[in-house]
Specification:
The protein has about 650 residues and is an alpha/beta fold. The protein has six domains: about 80 residues, Winged helix-like DNA-binding domain superfamily/Winged helix DNA-binding domain (Arc Repressor Mutant, subunit A), CATH 1.10.10; about 60 residues, Orthogonal Bundle (Arc Repressor Mutant, subunit A); about 120 residues; about 110 residues, PTS-regulatory domain, PRD (Orthogonal Bundle), CATH 1.10.1790.10; about 80 residues, 3-Layer(aba) Sandwich (Rossmann fold); about 150 residues, 3-Layer(aba) Sandwich (Mannitol-specific EII, Chain A), CATH 3.40.930. Helix content is about 55%, strand content about 10%. It contains 29 helices and 13 strands.
């Protein structure tokens, strides 16, 4: 009986797999499969019609749930032997990983029809998954070749295949996904004794005094396991050339090679030994031949940031030391095209966009240091160092103190006493003006954040805190609460978001057409010159500025604007932004050198909007005032 006949639809197969492993109540099953309890009962009935031919039934016990009862173990064994669904991927993400592994590990061509039948899927569903598989493999310079009547076959270097397999294992290890790791080790590593291999590596790391952090050591473990597995399957490296390898690394690699005979029956070939040397060197903190280039690259990055963005990090010794150590190993990885995966790449790009962006700009033309183009993963690691240093050196410069208006008709001595009390208890409050009751009543507009008064006032457009000449504890608490509100972001919103640069694009438009329209408007109003448009195009070509949640923040390379302004574009129909992705809310940034210190705060606003998933709310804005209200409300609840 074929699998298609056995389980006529996918949910039936998954339901059987679930009940086989644990007893569950009806409502829990309905919740897990997002169906009604009536549908679960119908599915159970269909399963029992199948299982009665295999000596089994699903029984329901009140207050306990559904459980599998086996009456004939022999006939049931025939069912489980003929078809196992334990390892069938259940989500698109799981299918993509499973397909990648299938292409990486099978020597013959892979037929999608066979996999579709095995996984209870349509071929068209798998074809959609293959699009993402191709994009993933492309990062490792691996391609899929379509062979009519035979299926699809992987084309690429053996070292790239190993890098991809190692990354898959290591990412699951870092995510502490022990269940998946267990399955992958069986499938990819053929149950290699990882504990023994880990001890071999640990002994030699200690003996040769190699410095590896925990992540580097775990990555090296999986890299060695993948190499052993591939060699035993007949995929030995024939030629792999290296140069300028540290003698300590070579010594450690030779000793490890001796131990590999436990798995291989012999020591590593010269090509495999060279490959092992590079794997060790790329994860080890050592005085390498890259040291001079490492120092030069770090100086270039920090000088670029200082010159272009006016953040002087050149005197930060901690940053310089940390980056020099990281860059030294990084240059080895880049030189030998060893891809490293940063599992937090998307989070870094999404939540630290400013640090990521200035690091990306600084590395735009550094091939003379790196010998080849750096990956986003490597850039994101450096961005973390830069981001931490920016917070360490410049975070204090971003707080805007509360500005208050003090109103009183008391004499000078008493007034100075109140003024002194406020300054002493609340150093983060700045008294902007001191007015009499009559002067206050004549005001039509109040620029300060709130008002402190010793007399009863008519409330205008700002909140009033009334205090006595000798303020009570309650009055001081009121004053403190108002003073502690973060007024920086509302201030920036009012300062840099302009009604004239709020656009709703309700007609189809391309990304390049949008840039032309907006940059022309900015140039016409004197915010930028003609070079700004070309710089925006250049920045977008480096890496997409799409943050997440369909929010994009295009901008120039460096601070090229004459005056700072944010152009807000709402595009209900969406604008194709990056391959298959779409932007609905676009903030085009024009930031001037004079206002560079506010740049990070502006980025923080966009991060908050992504975190709160504000895209739908923002798209509901009909006017600039609607937009402002949503943004201020969003930030107020997140700060």
């Amino acid at each position: 009986m074929s699998s298609k006949v056995l389980f006529s639809y996918q949910r039936l197969a998954y339901l059987f797999d679930t009940i086989k492993n644990e007893t569950l109540p009806q409502q829990e099953l309905a919740n897990r499969f997002s169906v009604s309890t009536r549908t679960i009962r119908t599915d159970i009935s269909a399963l029992n019609d199948i299982l009665r031919h295999y000596g089994a039934q699903i029984d329901y016990t009140k207050n306990i749930g559904y459980q599998l009862l086996i009456s004939d173990a022999k006939r049931y064994a025939a069912l489980t032997n003929s078809h196992s669904i334990e390892n069938i991927p259940r989500t698109s993400k799981e299918r993509i990983v499973a397909l990648i592994i299938a292409f990486l590990t099978q020597s013959n061509s892979v037929k999608l029809d066979d996999i579709a039948d095995k996984w209870f899927l349509s071929r068209s569903t798998l074809q959609n998954d293959v699009i993402e598989v191709k994009q993933y493999l492309d990062k490792y310079n691996l391609q899929l070749e379509n062979r009519p009547y035979y299926g699809m076959r992987l084309i690429g270097e053996e070292s790239s295949i190993r890098a991809c397999l190692t990354d898959i294992l290591w990412q699951r290890y870092m995510a502490e996904d022990t269940l998946t790791i267990g399955r992958l080790q069986k499938h990819i590593l053929n149950d290699i004794e990882l504990d023994y291999l880990a001890k071999v590596l640990q002994d030699q790391i200690e003996r040769f005094e190699l410095k590896l952090n925990a992540e580097g050591q775990s990555y090296l473990l999986y890299s060695c396991a993948v190499s052993i597995s591939r060699i035993t399957q007949g995929y030995e490296l024939i030629d792999y050339q290296i140069d300028q390898i540290n003698s300590t690394v070579i010594g450690a690699a030779q000793e490890i090679s001796e131990e590999f005979s436990y798995f291989l029956g012999s020591v590593l070939s010269q090509a495999e030994l060279n490959y092992l040397c590079v794997q060790i060197m790329s994860r080890t903190i050592i005085d390498s031949p890259n040291q001079a280039k490492s120092l030069a690259l770090v100086k270039h990055i920090l000088s670029y940031i200082n010159h272009t963005y006016h953040y002087n990090l050149l005197e930060d010794e901690k940053l310089f030391e940390d980056m020099s150590i990281h860059v030294s190993s990084m240059l080895s990885r880049v030189k030998y095209q060893i891809r490293t995966t940063n599992p937090l790449l998307q989070e870094i790009k999404q939540y630290y966009p400013f640090a990521y962006d200035i690091t990306l700009s600084a590395l735009a033309n550094t091939e003379k240091y790196t010998e080849s183009k750096m990956t986003e993963d490597e850039i994101s690691y450096l961005a973390v160092h830069i981001g931490v240093a920016l917070e360490r050196n410049y975070s204090a410069g971003h707080e805007r103190y509360a500005q208050i208006l003090l109103v009183s008709d008391l004499g000078n001595a008493t007034l100075r006493m109140i003024e002194s009390k406020i300054k002493r208890d609340f150093p983060h409050i700045q008294i902007s003006r001191i007015l009499s009751y009559r002067e206050y009543e004549q005001l039509t507009n109040i620029e300060e954040d709130f008002i402190v008064s010793t007399v009863r006032l008519t409330e205008k457009d700002k909140q009033i805190v009334k205090i006595a000449p000798f303020p009570t504890t309650y009055q001081l608490e009121q004053l403190g609460r108002l003073a502690m509100i973060d007024r920086t972001m509302p201030h920036l919103i009012e300062r840099f978001f302009d009604k004239n640069f709020f656009l709703i694009m309700d007609k189809p438009i391309t990304q390049s057409e949008l840039f032309k329209v907006v940059c022309h408007r900015l140039e016409k109003h004197g915010y930028v010159d003609a070079s700004f448009y070309h710089s925006v195009i250049e920045r977008e070509a480096i890496v997409s500025t799409l943050l997440g949640e369909n929010i994009a923040i295009p901008h120039s390379v460096g601070l090229l604007a004459k005056k700072t302004v944010v152009t807000t574009i709402l595009a209900p129909q969406g604008i194709i932004w990056d391959k298959n992705e779409v932007a609905h809310v676009i903030f085009l940034l024009a930031i001037s050198k004079d206002e560079y210190e506010d740049a990070m705060r502006i980025y923080n606003l966009f991060v908050n909007l992504v975190k709160e998933r504000s895209t739908k709310r923002l798209l509901n804005s009909k006017t600039f005032e609607d937009f402002q209200a949503i943004v201020k409300d969003s930030f107020g609840r997140l700060s």
